[in-house]
Amino acid sequence: MMKKRTPHTAASALAIGAMLTTGAAMAAELGDTQDPIKLAVLEWTGAQVSTQIAGMVLGKAGYTVEYITAGSFPQYSGLSDGTLSATVEIWSNNVGDIYPQALAAGDIENIGSLGLETREGWAYPKFMEEICPGLPDWTALKDPACAAALATTDTLPNGRLLDYPADWGSRSGEIIADNDLPLMAIPGGSEGAMLAELRASVATESPLLLMFWAPHHVLAEIDLGWLDMPPCASDDPDKCVQLPQVEKVVWSGFADKWPAGYEILKLLQVSSSAQEQMMSAILEDGQPLEEVVAAWVEANPDVWQPWIDAAVN
Question: Which residues form the ABC-type glycine betaine transport system substrate-binding domain (predicted)?
Answer without folding.
Answer: 35-298
